[in-house]
Amino acid sequence: MDVRDADQTPTEVAAEVAAEAATDEAAREVAELRAQVVHHNRRYHELDAPEIPDATYDQLVRRLQELEAKYPSLLTADSPTQLVGGGPSAAFAPVQHRVPMMSLDNAFDHDELRAWSQRVNRGLDLADGAGDALGYMCELKIDGIALSLRYEDGLLVQAATRGNGQVGEDITANIRTVSVIPHRLEGAPAVLEVRGEVYLPVARFEALNEAQEAAGLARYANPRNTAAGSLRQKDPRVTASRGLAFWAYQLGEVVGGPELVTQSSALDWLGTLGFPVNPERRVLPTIDAVIGYVEHWHEHRHDLPYEIDGAVVKVDALAFQRSLGSTARAPRWAMAYKLPPEERTTRLLDIMVSIGRTGKATPFAVLEPVFVAGSTVKMATLHNADQVRLKDVRPGDVVVIRKAGDVIPEVLGPVLSERPEGLAEWVFPVHCPSCGHLLVRPETEAHTFCVNLSCPSRRQTQIEYFASRGAMDIEGMGESRIARFAELGLIADAGDLYFIDWDEVAGLKGFGQTSIDNLKAALEASKARPLVSLLVGLGIRHLGPAGAGALAAGFGHLDRIMAASAEEMASVDGVGATIAASVHQYFQSEAAQGLIDKFRAAGLNLVGPEVSTLRQVLAGKAVVVTGSLVGFSRDGAGDAIKARGGKSPGSVSKKTLAVVVGADPGASKLTKAEELGVPRIDEAGFVQLLETGELPSAPVVP
Q: Would the pTM of this model clear 0.70, i.e. be above it?
């Protein structure tokens, strides 16, 4: 029986009853949240198979923290908010960490970062804004797996995951296959524990996914999960094949080492011992400068050759770190600033199929709109029929989507724990959704095609591609206008763009004389575009800019390309049998010949480039240009290199002769050049290189 104080008023009794009911409701929500967090911790830390994105997980944890703060009686020592990571896997021997590997508290906006700075100042009895005396060490938060490396007398004796912070997993055999991690150190103390992050470079991740698709296997979800799975392979040879990398970021147990006074000096020392230490670290004097740092990397995160999900800010002075100490799970002297998430969950409403310019039928997801990576996403790619089957996503599922920078959003997979019962599998259509023609899948390919050259969707996307900046660059002739002109019967293919009835257009809503004049001028200007642009704009399967340039230079005129056999085309350097067969087949069709007749009648340039009379001082050499130059446009710099026999690739490799650095260069190219020892030169050095083929005697490093 409920016995209450007899002196209580009815209002007080009602308030007490309401408070108890609220506490009971909170207790039920806390129990549910803890079960979810524990479940997802295990999926992430132990099984390397997370079901939900980090952002969704963070929301669960934050809600749990809010309830535990509001109802202190519900906080228990075994709550996941008081623990680090997840339990170690039983597949590997356990490793007891001599110094706990703690987690980090998170900040999601500038106010939370400032609030942490104020707590640090109070903890050190410093006035707010006393950062000049404090100093903040800022490092990129690598999206990888935390690792502990133990060296005794300079020899690597043990490598372990973080696990639950107290006990991790022994993965020494696998870590020995990561080439950038030293096995032996010169000048190391008796005991040295180095902590850092193992990660998978973006280029390696993309290569692995290409191999997966070629083998008819499911694509890997993201670099972090792929790296985690690579580390926990029972066969170290599999780990060795993945191309993992490592950044060192912290000291653990050290016996006999030098007297270090700052985090920054500790990282510098690790660099001298041979450990990879991230070059983008900075010591900054104020929290405003720290915010400038995190905002810079918010904007430039995709300039890096590896993935980051934020920045880690630490009090630089080690004495101050010791004074501030830690909570049960995280140091008070450090904060992880999380960048906006690039993975979110949403509902998959439908799966539809689009037909591209080459006839490729690509399934795509229609989604409940969700805000991710700076924009609202309503649709996402599903790649091909095999990937839909392997991912087993179905209309009605809650799915994880990923949008990294300007990359097309992708559906990673379903959240199976939220799948409605009896949800039917999706079946790839047999007929083209646009023209009804039978879809065809070549035996050796992963993609399905509509082979009807008159397919309306295929024609429209081909016209859009023809008018795009990478092809004929017809400014103002975008997707919506092309769709409208096609719907009204004003155009049926790219050739019709040059014979539009402008009197009819003038009668359309939204088309004034100025916009019509601008479109006419853009079309007229496109007639002078080089032959390579026209070839690219045709959208011939397998033919990209490099192959188009080789054909234009090799034959000198479109008529000669059309008359050439596949064998004659294949003999041109840079073409090859696959491209040659595709181009030859394309020009045999009546539709292609009719299109070229329209281009000829419109007066488009069909003549290829003249053979360069410049000395071929860069023959066979690759020169990469990054940033803006004063005397060259981006295309002009590449053309100048190619005119002298060189190559102008978009990425740096060990074969690169030099990297030309202009204003606002790409950070990833500079980092790669530094890693590979490729010389970096300024614009004056570039001019000398073009004239002589030789690098400056003392290359300038801008």
A: no
